[in-house]
Amino acid sequence: MNYNYNDETPHRDRPDARRTQRIRRQNQTLMAIAVTFVLLLLVFAIMLSITAISSLGNSNKPPEGDTPGGEQPGDTLPGDQPGDQPGDQTPDDDPPATQQNTITLDAGRIHEGELVLVNRTHVYPFPSIHLVNVYDSQMAAKTYGQYMQVSGTSLWMEQTAYRQMDKLLAAFGDPSVVMTSAHRTAEQQTASGSTTPAGYSDSHTGLSCALRGQKGATPLPLTNEKYTWLYQNCYKYGFVVRYPADKVAQTGVDDYTNYFRYVGYVHAYIMKTNNLCLEEYVSYVKSYTFGDRTLNVTTDDGSSYQIYYVAATGDKTQVPVPENGNYTISGDNEGGFIVTVKVS
Predict the structure, then answer these.
(1) Which of 41, 124, 297, 314 is least crowded, fewest Cβ atoms below 10 Å from its Cβ?
(2) What would the pLDDT profile of 188-205 be if each residue is shown by its tens digit?
(3) Which of these, 327, 106, 112, lies nearest to 206 by C-alpha position?
(4) By mean pLDDT, which of 47-61, 221-235, 296-310 is the weakest?
(5) Which residues are paired to 328 by β-bridges?
(6) Collapsing DSSP states into helix, strand and coil, what is residue 210?
(7) CB-based contacts of 153, cutoff 8 Å, min separation 6
């Protein structure tokens, strides 16, 4: 039987029509697959964008910690850089760029650090401190008598303060200098006969010591040219005169200019440059706060610092610190913490 495709076979049953219809269905399927793929890509891109925006927002929030993991104890500077040019001290309206972390400090930490203020109105609660025996340290180093002597064998100092005092006296190089007083317990303070009652003496901190010249005969008078170098350069090693002759109204102590107190290099530099005693300096630093107004200082050895005060808040205090850990924290023995960041 012969068929005439042009006249007798229905259009949908013709071979060319079936082929065309099959191709159309294939194209439609491919188009659907392509559209689905594009939609999946769009959904994936949107999810990535949302994740990126969320991560960016979270990166600006300082994480809270439970322990002062980045805190570095003691003085981080050698304290023996020469120079006596005053540096820049300017408040900063912007927070330090390196501040990205927060640590939690217990209330007891207020009484610890090189800037604790102890006087007749600020009692010292005797926290645990690391003391070293001055005589034993000198004998072990085989330096006793070379540039310093000790009045007895039982004088103790806080370890960092002693290390820096040892450097200071070694640089001065006068073997007639004698350390006559340093750390005192409450019992020793009472037994000393001092008019300062136990608990209210700076000697309790272990950060201070008294020096005398001529093998203990003189208290290093400022008028004696021989000792001028000590007074002019002690700040480079982190020390200041605890009771300056012109600050009796602030300290309540006179005639004790041969008593040196360790506060750390940058703080000693600021105190010397601005003629501040410890009472004045602690009050001065309280006006500088993190995020609002930090104290920017460039010292005479070219180092840069940022200093700010954080008031204590009950049993736990959140303290902002730099992420890289290049900082120290000291309580003021009163109401808060002084953070010192070494920028460069």
Answers:
(1) 314
(2) 999 999 999 999 999 999
(3) 112
(4) 47-61
(5) 340
(6) strand
(7) 133, 135, 136
